[in-house]
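Newbie here. two chains, one complex. Structure please?
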Amino acid sequence: MFRLSFFIIIICLVVCQFSLAETDNEAVVDGFFSRGGHTNNWAVLVCTSRFWFNYRHIANTLSMYRTVKRLGIPDSNIVLMLADDVACNPRNVFPATVFNNAGRYLDLYGDNVEVDYRGYEVTVENFIRVLTGRVAPDTPRSKRLLSDDRSNILVYMTGHGGNEFLKFQDAEEISSFDLADAFEQMWEKRRYHEILFMIDTCQANTMYSQIYSPNILSTGSSKLGENSYSHHMDTDIGVAVIDRFTYYNLEFLEKIDMQSKSTLQDLFDSYDPSLIHSTPGVRSDLFRRPLDKVLVTDFFGSVQNVELMGQKYNLSNSETMIDNTTLSPNMSNVEQTTVKEGPIKFEKTTSRNFHLFKMNSRQTSSSLPQFIIASILFGLLIRWVSLN
Amino acid sequence: MSLTAIARLKKRRLLVRSLKKWIPKLRYLLFLVGVGWLFIFPSEKYSKNTYISENALLPGQVNTYYSWSQVFDATAYRDRIESLSNLSNIEKVNYIEGELRKAGLKTATQNFSVISSGKVISGINTFGVLNSPRTDGTEALVLSAPWKSKDGVTTNVNGIAAALSIVKFFKSTDYTYWSKDIIILITDGGEAGVQAWLESYHDHKQSGIEASPLLLRSGAIQAAINLDFPGTSSYKALGIFFEGLNGQLPNLDLINTVIRVCHVSNSIPIMIHDSGHYYTHYDSGDYRSSFYNLIKSMKYQALGHPTGSHGLFFRYKIDAITLYGQVDGPGNSYDFLEIGSIVESTFRSLNNLLEHLHQSFFFYLLPSPERYISIGSYLPPAILLAVGLIFHISFALELWGTTSDDAIELISSNDNVQPSSSVNAPESAPLAYLRRPREILMPVAALVISHFAGIIIFFVVKNHFELSQISNIFGVAGYLFTLAITTNISTIATAGLISAFQSRSHKIKKSDHHNQLSPSPDWIILKSVTLAFTAMIISCLSLLNFSLAVFISIIVVIPFSLFQPSAHQIIRYLELIVLVLISPPGILIISKTNIEEFLRWTIMEYELFGNYFLPFICCLYWPIILVYVVIIFSPIK
């Protein structure tokens, strides 16, 4: 009896599926582009300045660090390069704190800041080694970028720069060519799926001008010949606490949580040159997805795609058992469909994965009728079972 | 000689002739341009706005917390210090030390004494160290206040009271943001006290000051602020004194920081020195006031005279500045509250420093507090004046003509006799070449001897106060005695040289060689050498002490260019009078300086601080004048 009802449900679902496929071609195409296709997220956050009066650069970087952590990237997936000479600087009126706002609402240094490259370790060499993975064998895991070809990486840099260079701690500088070649090497070594390169420095847009590797999206704070300015200062700490570009990025990012459907296009549209006092730039010619399909959380967060299987794997290597009673039937049904339809339907079925946290608008709308039908059928099933 | 060589010589002759024609005019033009250029300096268009070059300073960006409770402290200190000012050194020092101890500072004192320029200078310095709580104390800032104000008479009551209250506030504050130790230094005995303290602090004994060693030290001093607020009244304007020993200047960033802080936090009118020309923010002043400021500043620089206690820190690579309270002026008066917040804010800025002040200019002129002329803009006039002298040697004196191998004249004579010579002389025969001998030994010897005389003069002047003991026996004023000795030395040196030259010229006349032109007169070579030497002195000095170089060159360039032996005795004596007037004693008498006092402070500054004004004048400037006396009395041929 039970098996019969189950069979009926499956048939209904398949029919429903086919009927939907006819009307939902556009959604499929959209789905193809909008899918991140990444399985893990990494962030490389670099503050290339040191010294007390560059407080704001450290605050910038720690603000981004806080944001990506808040949106789900764990410390193990963040490489934070920071001079870190500010929080415990004797000049700091509020010892062991870093604030990014004169209101001092939030201590960025509060708890659990894991700086991977500190002080004089922040060098061009170390930065490029981290990106390209050419680190010494005894380098601890926390100091490595252990990404793969399914990794989305956020590379955020801030400091003092100029036309096609960024200064590293008064001692050396990285040029836009170095950066482009490092990214190319990463691509060749399949170390990333997509990269968002974000830089806040003077003439920042020149830094991404030489990048030539695919799937890299870049944004910078100011164009050639423009300075990037600080946003405001704290008159007790006595220094500027944050830069304008980062400030307005954060203003957008602070409103986002892991379920957010905001796209990078929304972020870039929020840039207002009159507020930032410079002309932010976006370079998307190497990036294959349309920006209004790319979620902010694709780069700034790590939203885990939880894939619930209908099957229960027996760890003791015996026969695989199917247990419907422990799972909610609609989910199990979906998975069953996947199994039945095989590899041809693979693309489509993965789009129907239940995104526990990630709420892609297009995907949600295309699977909505299926849910309704499945629910009705489920109701009928319950009713039918109870009647018997 | 080949035809091409002759053509080359002809070309050269043409060039030299045209140069000869134009250079004499050009050198006067150079002088006029050089001097005229100096008069452009005060123009607002010539100077630029000052700016903060060191990113770390961030002046005036912090809230200041020096407030009324600190003002009450300062007022109490003021009343007590005023009542102390007639008491002995020991009692004053005990009071200051006690107050610093009460505030929680480590304190120490230093006795010193020195005999200089016939006087015994002695005193007790008091100082305290506020150890920064969160650093290792490798760096320090100094807040100093001398007991006496810059006039040497008034007690610096408010200055010391403000310094005490500020340091007490720094120590008691809840904030522990000091990255450098703070040293409060109350000096005694004028600038000698500062010198004694600095020498002991750096363990660098240089003058004859006998000082007890310092029992308390801190790190390398990064900067110093000296407070000079005489009396007990309130003030209307703030004077900035920055010229140091030998015309050294603090880094412009330090001055900019203080001025920025004053304008941003309290809008107190600023003066350069105590000029009486007041400046508000972004005020660049008019031509007259700028001119006045520049002249005053250049005068201080040229004399190498430190304009306050700050001026002695520069030798130890410490940038320092004196803040002076001007009692009269426009607008509202200000008091401890403003002084305290200016110092607090300035110290917060200096506290931000990561290394010595080095970003901004060390060589500059300030026509007004927020306008500067950098070395690149002010150096050309001095160089033009020196170049004028060099041109004079080369062309006006016809160094290529009269003093050397006269190839040009030869060619022209050769041209005329071309047909005959080509017939008579074989092709390979060398061209007959007339030589004009240059006797360089004697003129150089004259220069050396007069400088040697200069050194003797220097030692006489240096020992003026010992010599004045002898002069007292004769019953004449000490300075007259020294003057007489020095003048005698200079006269003997020149007279000896003149007679030597004259007897030599007789000898040369007798032994006239054939096949040679008559040797060039000695005075031409002597003048050439002297002018070259003068030009060298001016151009070198313009880098070390621009103001002194400018004053020297303005005085000497025109007389040195014009003067030469004349056939008329009257003209020779007129030239002599001018030379006597521009010699150091002449200048002192014309300017009606109190010679006794002038000698006293130049000698004291030389002995105690190492001011090079006196040796420069005696060993370099005066001898050149002496050489010129020799030149004008040399035989013409």
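Moderator note: Residues 3-40 of chain B form the longest helix (38 residues). The interface with chain A takes residues 55-56, 58, 61-63, 132-135, 175-179, 348, 351-352, 354 of chain B (CB under 8 Å). Thread marked as resolved.
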